[in-house]
Amino acid sequence: MSETLRYLYAIADARSSGIVASSELRGIEGARVEPLLEGPLLAATSVVPASDYEEGPLNEHLQDIEWLAPRAAAHQDVNAKLLEITGAVLPLAFGAIYRGSDGVRALLRSRADELRDRLGSVEGRAEWIVSVERDESAPAESEALRELDAEIASAPPGRAFLLGKRRGEVLRDERRARDAAIGEETAAAVEAIGERVYREPLIDDAAVSAVARFSVLAEREREAKLGDAVRRLGATGISRGYRLRLSGPWPAYRFGGLPREHARSA
Predict the structure, then answer these.
(1) Domain boundaries, the chain
(2) By the number of CB atoms within 10 A of the CB, which of 49, 142, 155, 264 ranks highest?
(3) Residues 168-183, mean pLDDT to the nearest whole number
(4) What is the pTM of this model?
């Protein structure tokens, strides 16, 4: 008979065990989320079928977006609710599988000091995502472009072609300069409020609307200030032609999360 597989969502303080147990959370495959305790730590887990979550089938499923999307959403929902009811969690990436309760408890024992330190670093804190996107509907206007447009309109075909290429270069350079400016202003605004800020590397591509994306770790009580800072920046001239979005609070995946591990035994 094969071992029971345990799906691990997050790690929290063991003192939250009562509220986690009574919350009746449902997670992956609709299974009940159960707290497993080891010393001062709690693991939020549920049982999953080996037919889908052993390493081979799971790796195949991860390539299937129709299979993955609802389960990843369930994973996120559980961790968001755990953050709400416990106040601090170390979220795991999707697909952390352990062999039975003993496998989960072995993790908590073997990394107890590290996990306690990580948990302490996110206590009373959460993660927010601040994204900057180019508003493609906003017209690209500058004196240099207007002058080129006027020249192109009155130029013969050969010169108009060359001026058109020049216009594309000016448009690209201006876009890059504007993108850099709004990115720097956004970074300064969120760094003034967050304890830690991570800027995600993005591809410089005019065809992609995403300009910058920041993960911000901040105290929960500073949520309103972070929202105000993003709104103020969105109302300034430098943000013209861009959309700023703030989402959260989320569990601290970037700053306190752990990568997925598969089918670890005790």
Answers:
(1) 5-123, 126-250
(2) 264
(3) 84
(4) 0.80
